[in-house]
Every structure is written in structure tokens, then in C-alpha cells.
Amino acid sequence: MNEKARFIRQPAGSFFLFGPRGTGKSTWLQHHFAAGLWINLLDPDVHRKLSAQPERLVALLDGNPDQRTIIIDEVQKVPELLTVVHKYIESQKGYRFILTGSSSRKLKRSGVDLLAGRAAVSFSHPFMACELGNAFSLEDALQLGTIPLILAAQQPLETLAGYVMLYVREEVMAEGLVRDIGGFSRFLEAISFSHASLLNIAEVSRECEVSRKTVEGYVSVLEDMLLGARLPVFSRRAKRGLIKQSKFYFSDCGVFRSLRPQGPLDKSEEIDGGALEGLVYQHLKAWADYSSTKNTLSFWRTQAGTEVDFVIYGASAFCALEVKNSAKVFRKDLKGLKAFREDYPESQVALLYRGKDRLMIDGILCLPCSTFLQELTPNQPPLPLP
């Protein structure tokens, strides 16, 4: 696959660049900072030396006085290096540190807390449709997801199948994040049923036969490794009784599909629907992180069960989106959007579906999902202005 232009934000000074494995962090940095001093902690020799002597970083910097842009790849592997980085940012002018990571767990535990705000935070996500351009295919994205590592592979399905196990081997096991690898593996399968759904910790606990407290810890591990996230309920100026449970999404719909069991008892339309909603989620998350203005993502669900899949709220947008894995739109599909619009007349509302036509039904815009994803661009409104 040819290199694609990315929307990853580049802060002016030192910054962290977080993102799941394989989302193109190193490729993007090599394109923009090829001349910098690179320290790759995935290199076993480099990792061994700096783990044993984090202060060796000082010797490296002093030995390369002309290098003022320092890239430390997968910094969570040796979080002690942040103490040296912190010192240089505070006392040595002219240095710029770019620190990549596919997990924030060890950094949080180290107590450095992302350099106490002295470095900005940027994110790398799976490809957005607008980054892929003409290479984007909705059908392919629903099967494989859009992680660059997967799409560039000669055998993408086999690479996808091993992607999560790579994480388990190199992050979970190597870093000792969980004690019971068997229980964690069962958890990954069990929580795949919660993708794009309300997260029921008790139910997941029963399915994978571990305690609720352990499941809470496992979910936190997924979040720290940037493989999944909880989506909260939108409750600003609430006029109705709302639920308090969060929904759960994997960071890529291909990862969800690779973990979700498929057999005679598993309905393909349920899996396809979860993949479609997950694809929209990962695009909205990337759009929010890549945009210069702050926007939050949530969903809306009343205690009576009326729901809207996504709510975008912030300085540049207030939108509600419903996602339907159907080629046709029925008026009953608009129930949640109508209720949300009644409570929040300031909002824009739209339904995304699998058809080909832009429709306006009862004053609600109905867009082909593929068109919405291809037109979704950071720093641009997610929906056409009225």
C-alpha cells in the first residue's frame, strides 16, 4: 500500500504520540522526523541497555550534540527514561522529544504522569476513510478494519487473526499486566459480545468465569493498551431519566470481528451491525482527536430504552447520529433521533444507513454510511451545515 497522508496532529514542542500497535506512528514520524535521533525500544539490544541504565540516555544526548529532535519509540517499555526527558525539557533549551506509545499503563504507574503536562499529547488511529481516498471500501473495512499494518499485509486476514495475540504476548504477558492469561483470553472473547452494546460487567464476569473486580481490571487493561474504550452517556441538561451504564467499543472493527465467535448460534446480521457501528465509532474518535477544537463523544439512552448511538458535543459540533445496518430507512428507525431533537432542538441529527441515496424524512437527514465516512474530515463539521 502506498503511503497515505495522515491527519495526525503535530504539536509545536515536545509531545507524546499514543496509538494502538500498527496504526502508523513510526511510519508517520519517519516521514516527518527522519533526521532526528531515534531510540527504538522495540530493538532488544537498545531496550536491554536502557532498561539496565536509563541514565545512558544522557550519554546518548551528550554524544549527539547536534541532534535536538529526539524520538523515543514505545517509551512505555522503559518509563524510567521519562525522568531524564523531564530534566532535559526543563533545563536544556532547544530539545524536542517525541515519545510514542501503544500503552499508557506503565507510564501511569511510573508516577511521571506524562511529564506533568510539559509535553502535549497527540494520537494515532486506524485509517479514516478520507485518508484512504479511493482505496476505501466499506465492505472491506467492515471485514478487515482499517489498521494500516493489516491493510498493508500480503495476507491481511491472517495478520488480523494474529494481531490481538501479538498484543497479548508482547504487552500483557511481557509486562505482567495480568496474572491469569487463560482468564484474560476468555475475557477477550466474552467482551466481544459487548462491542457496540451496554457494558455489563456482571455478565462478562459470568461468561469468562472470573470475578467482577478482575473484569473491571481487564477492561482497564484494554483501555490502557488503546484496544478498547467505554463510551459514556450524554447527560447535559437532561430532561428525561437516563441510564448510567457505558457502552464499549474496540478501537477497530476488524479487531472486534477477529475476536467475536462465529457459528450456528451467532447471527451474522448482529456481527455485521456491530462492525458497522464500530467503524463509525472509530472514525468519530479519530475525527475528534485529530481536530483542533475539543469535542466529546457519548451516546444517549433513556431509562425507557429510547437511544441514539452517538452524540458529538463541543465547540464545533452538536450532532446526534443513529447507525442502521439496513439498505432501507423506516420511520420507526428515526424514533430515537426525534426524541433527542425534541429535547435538544439546537442539535443536528442524522441517520446513517447502508443504502445509496441521501434522503430527508420528517426533517431528518438520512445519509449512506459510506458517504458520511468518506466526507468526515478533521476540523470540518461532521454533518453538512443546515
Textual characterization of the structure:
- This protein has 386 residues and is an alpha/beta fold.
- The protein folds into two domains: 109 residues, 3-Layer(aba) Sandwich (Rossmann fold); 247 residues, no CATH class.
- 40% of the residues lie in helices and 18% in strands.
- It has 16 helices and 14 strands.
- It has a six-stranded mixed sheet, sandwiched between helices. A five-stranded parallel sheet has the order 2-3-4-1-5.
- A hairpin with a 5-residue loop joins strand 9 and strand 10.
- It is globular.
- The two termini are 37 Å apart.
- 40% of the residues are buried.
What's the gist of this structure?
The chain has 386 residues and is α/β, with parallel strands linked by helices. The chain has 2 domains: 15-123, 3-Layer(aba) Sandwich (Rossmann fold); 129-375, no CATH class.
Q: Kindly report the spatial arrangement of strands forming the biggest sheet.
A: 9-10-11-12-14-13
Question: Can you write the helix and strand succession as a string?
Answer: EHEHHEHEHEHHHHHEHHEEHHEEEHEEEH
Count of DSSP-assigned helices:
16
Strand tally, please? 14
* Count of domains: 2
The biggest beta sheet is recorded as:
6 strands, mixed
| Uncertain stretches | none
Task: Give the helix/strand class.
Answer: alpha/beta
As a percent range, the share of strand residues is: 15-25%
| Overall radius of gyration | 22 Å
Features:
386 residues; alpha/beta; Rossmann fold; 2 domains; 6-stranded mixed beta sheet; 16 helices; 18% strand; globular
Helices and strands, with pairings:
Layout: E1 15-18, H1 25-32, E2 37-40, H2 44-52, H3 56-63, E3 69-73, H4 81-91, E4 96-101, H5 105-110, E5 120-123, H6 129-132, H7 138-144, H8 148-151, H9 156-173, H10 181-191, E6 197-198, H11 201-208, H12 212-224, E7 228-231, E8 247-250, H13 253-259, H14 268-290, E9 295-301, E10 307-314, E11 318-323, H15 335-343, E12 348-353, E13 359-361, E14 364-368, H16 369-375
Parallel strand pairs: 1-4, 1-5, 2-3, 3-4, 11-12, 12-14
Antiparallel strand pairs: 6-8, 7-8, 9-10, 10-11, 13-14
